[in-house]
Every structure is written in C-alpha cells, then in structure tokens.
Amino acid sequence: MSLLSPKMLLVNVLALHALFFAVQAATDDDPTPPSPAGEHPAGSATAGSPTPDAPPEAVADEALAADAEAPGPPAEPLTPLAAVAAQAAPPIQRPGALRLQALYEDEGKLLADLGNDWVGELTTDLPLQAAATRILNRARVPFGAVVVLDVATGNVLAMADRYDEHHAAAPKLSKDGPPHLALRAVAPAASVFKIVTTVGLLETGLSPNKTYPFVPAKRRVYEAQLGAVGKGAPQSDVGDALAKSNNGFFARMADLQLAREDMQAIARRFGFNQVVPFPLLTEASTARVPRNKLERARMAAGFWHTHLTPLHAALIATAVAGDGTLPRPRLVGRLRSPDGRLVDAPEQPPFATAMTPKQALLVREMMARTTKSGTLRRVWRKWPKSLRDVTVGAKTGTLARRDPYTAYTWFVGFAPVDNPQIAIAVVVGNGELWWQRGADVGRDVLAWYFTQQAKGAAAKPSQADDPTATAAAR
C-alpha cells in the first residue's frame, strides 16, 4: 500500500494527533507551569507572603520603609518539588507591626519583638527616657509629654508621657487612638504657631532688621490691634517679637502681609493637616485658617484654630535647628533578622520642607533670644552655671480654656544654638493648682542631657593623658 494513499494519510494524521495529546499530558505534569497574567507561581513573593529568594536586608528595608503594598492574589499550593525546596531553605517571613506591649530591655537597649523571629532595635536613649519620665512625674502635671529628637538623624531619643485620667483637666482619650500622648493632638499649638507665622512674614518681604509699629495685646487680640497705630506707638523687629511672643505685633503684621491662602500654604509646608509618618498610630496636627479677618489674625498670633502633637512640635524645632526640613522621625534604628544579621534602617526623604536653610538660620537666631531676653529669661535663671556655654533656642506657648479650666503650656527648642544636637518639645496641661509648666520641664530635661554629656566628655582621657593616643599621633 502506498504511503500517500488516502487510507495511509488518515492513519498518519491520527498518529500525529495521538502524539500531540501525549506530549500535552506530560507538560501538564510539569512542576513549574507558566503562570497566567496577574497570578504568582508557587514560591513567588507576594505582599505579606514568605520571600525565600530575598535576603534579610531586602525584607527589612521594605519593612522599615513602612510603605503599604496592596496584597497580591493568594499563592498557589506548593507542588511536591517546591515543597522539598521550601524544606531545604525555609522562607523568611516579614516582620510584623511595632507594638508598645512588645518592648523589652536587653543589654542597655530597648528592643521590640516584631514577630516571625524579627527584633527591632529602637533609637531610644534609655537613660534620657528615664530622666524625661522622672522629670515629668516630678512636675505632677495632670497630663503632659516630652519628645527629644536627634537633629542630625531624626532619631527619637526619648518619648515620655504622663496622664492622670482622674484629674478634671485631663482630656478624655479614646481607647482606639494613638497609644502615646506624644502622638495625640490634645493641645492647641498656642504661640508655637508664631514660628509658622514668622516664616510666612519673612517670605512676604518683612525685613528681620527693621522695626514695625504695633498695638500691644497681652492676653487677647481685638480689632484695635489691627487698626491704625497712633503716633509714638511701640515698635519691634520680628526677632524680638518672636522671643517675647508679642501678640499685637504678629496679629497686625499677619493681617497686613498674609492672605488666607498664604497661611494655608505655609501651615501645610510645616506639616499641619497631615499625618506624620511613624511606626505607631499618630494623629494629625490641624490648622484651620478662618475666613474671618480678626480670627485669622488671632490664629497667626497663636490664639486657637490649631492643634499640635508633641512629636510634630519636636519636628518643627528640628527644622529650625537644621536645614528647614522636617525629617521623618525614626523610632526603629535597625532590625535583627531571624538568622541574626543586623539591617540598618534605610534613609528616608524629609516629611516636609517648611523653610529654606537661610530662613531656618534666621529663626534659629531669633529663638536664641527667648532664653536671654524673651519669655524664658526668668525660667533660665535656674539653668546650671556649669552649662553656661550651652545656649538654648526656644519658643514658648501658653493658652487656657475655661471649662474645665486647663492651662496649656509649651516649650519647643533646641541646643546648642551654634551647633544643634537635639531638639525638644514639651507640652503640659495643668489645672488651677500647678507645680511646673512646660518650660520648667523642658529646661530640666535639657540640663540633665547636657550635664551627662559633660560628664561623659570629662571621663574620656585626653590625647595628652593617653599614651596610646599620643603614640598613634606620632
């Protein structure tokens, strides 16, 4: 029979079809089939799933960056071959969220159990943390918080709080809110907001070297402070006005120089109405710029319409002490992976850019006057004489509400002025009877820190006393 006969052609076609189906069946049994579009093959990394091929550094960088990723579709069941591979090289699970309940101390460091055998090393300076807590408790305040940041890195060195829920002046706190008072916007920004107004005025052309007339306003701003000034009215430059927290000056100049849109823009640049990126739940500081002209002038001078978290206040102080940017505060410095390796936290871009470096320098010099001739001149009489060379720049804030009576006092600052190392923010809420205010607490925390710095420097042998150092120098 000829191979080209119709009968043989039909036999050949049927044989080819049979071979095709046999090959296809064998392909279906392959342990690594191609994945349809949008699906992940077994063993591939998806958000929240094991990442067997990724080194601990990669997993840690993703976790420390705190960028939320949309979860991918569930991974397919492991084939026998993939299961054997998984047993040979266990997948590295991602670390979980930071929880205050999972903190513990070990060898002088504050650590956090992040789950899945990951451990976070916090940036907390434990002696400073203990001192801030002790000073805050000694002040016997109904509520208050202290935040200390490293100016160069944005590391959180201390974050202490105190809250007496039984005191009439203590605010009612929701149980599902942030776990720390430093992360809650429980107090108005008060005159701390004058820092924001100062930068806005400088941007509109207000000269830092020129004086301007104003109508005094000690406790309240009225229409009279916005009207025409009389002959022989007092005058002030913006630096002296900031140091002395001059309400009349800021109300009048803001009314003349800043439109509502200007104040909205500068407030946002300072990070208001935004949530500060942080590994713990945090409330946003708020600044609601009024349409009413008088209320807007009052806000510029620090009267209401704002709320500020102590963490955010410390970031503002850091911006003045540094290059004008608010860093992303860092609470976890590095991670320990399940296999024992240490992974440093990646550098993050600033949270906000509030001002230029030149403006930051100007405001820094203005705030240095506060402890010398401004609102803190009396409080600073108790500054240790041994620290006379450590100059401090600061801004105070004071505001009270009637029912129930609560006196809010702020201290926001940095030191040393010529080369800032740390920035600090303190808020205190007192009733009608009180022992210490925010400025007292802030002064004492700074004094403790720099006293310890001086002791540490004195304990280190000088090059002249250290023969090994002298030999090395030769």
Keywords:
5-stranded antiparallel β-sheet, alpha+beta, 474 residues, disordered C terminus, 16 strands, disordered N terminus, 13 helices, Beta-lactamase
In total, the number of strands is 16
The CATH superfamily of one domain is identified as DD-peptidase/beta-lactamase superfamily
Question: Which class of one domain in CATH terms?
Answer: Alpha Beta
Rg on CA atoms, Å: 31 Å
Q: Let me know the average pLDDT.
A: 84
SSE succession: HHHEEEHEEHEEHHHEHEHEEEEHEEEHH
Largest sheet: 5 strands, antiparallel
- Low-pLDDT parts are 1-53, 66-89, 466-474
Please tell me what the overall shape is. globular
Level of helix content?
25-40%
Structure classification: alpha+beta
Classify the fold: give the CATH topology of one domain: Beta-lactamase
Strand order of the biggest β-sheet? 1-2-3-11-12
Distance between the termini: 104 Å
Q: What percentage of amino acids are in beta strands?
A: 15-25%
- Tell me the CATH architecture of one domain: 3-Layer(aba) Sandwich
